[in-house]
């Protein structure tokens, strides 16, 4: 067990109430409510939070900036989508917030489906989409680490570009980490050469072991010129005082999902990406895989990180997280609802077992 693993939470950032069954706050997306959550993360051991994104939700970067201004250690993991942002515009915005916050910015580069036409973007096939993402990540990093950058790519161009201010340098951290997800072959090629952290959803251990080994092999074959790729897990964790209570509550939640009375669970309505399909396919292998990976939510609308859950006592879930850690995963993004209740419960019960 190392002390290097980091634990983040999740902020849905959704104007619609009832996200994943969280109906506790009528003003669920007000700045005061979200600030209360972010401050609770600071008080209960979380490094920060992934902020949900997609057209039809509030702008992720604006929300991250507001929460940074109202907190002291909270680190937002901010989604950036090539096409929604141009690389130079994003590099400047992110480094400004990073400098103002003393190095608290993290970035999640998103390439999955979205309502592109709604903000004037278009994409070609999968190969074109990931070629554009690769250029975006390479250029943003160059703008953060070099001056007078000239870049003439197939998708993006800049000439004599210097981003001011520079990112906050803290120890060996030269710029915000670039997180990335995606399970297709095209996505893995981008991750292997451009990402700092590859994020996985909650698959069984054996599946992630294979993916990690494949990405390491790809990194070597593609002559990665960055520090070694790191790995992260984004998953729902349902924690209760006892194993029995956790499973009773998990099964009750799924029963409500089956009735259609559990709020909005599906964040990925625009199409089924390869990674999402991998999770949905798990239901054919059984409702519970490994020790306590619950796949049943995927049958009733659970999407993204809500498709599979780790269920159990704090000790049960910590044991499972340690097994992922043993595979080489060192970044964890956890969540459950009600969000504020679970920030506190899992921060006080689960996180101490992971130190």
From TrEMBL:
GO BP annotation list: alkanesulfonate catabolic process
CDD domains, per database record: Alkanesulfonate_monoxygenase
Keywords per UniProt: Flavoprotein, FMN, Monooxygenase, Oxidoreductase
Transmembrane portions of the chain: none
Sequence ranges assigned to domain Luciferase-like in this UniProt record: 6-331
Gene Ontology terms for molecular function: alkanesulfonate monooxygenase activity
InterPro entries: Luciferase-like_dom, Luciferase-like_sf, SsuD_RutA_monooxygenase
Family annotation (Gene3D superfamilies): Luciferase-like domain (3.20.20.30)
This protein's name: Alkanesulfonate monooxygenase
Organism: Neorhizobium alkalisoli
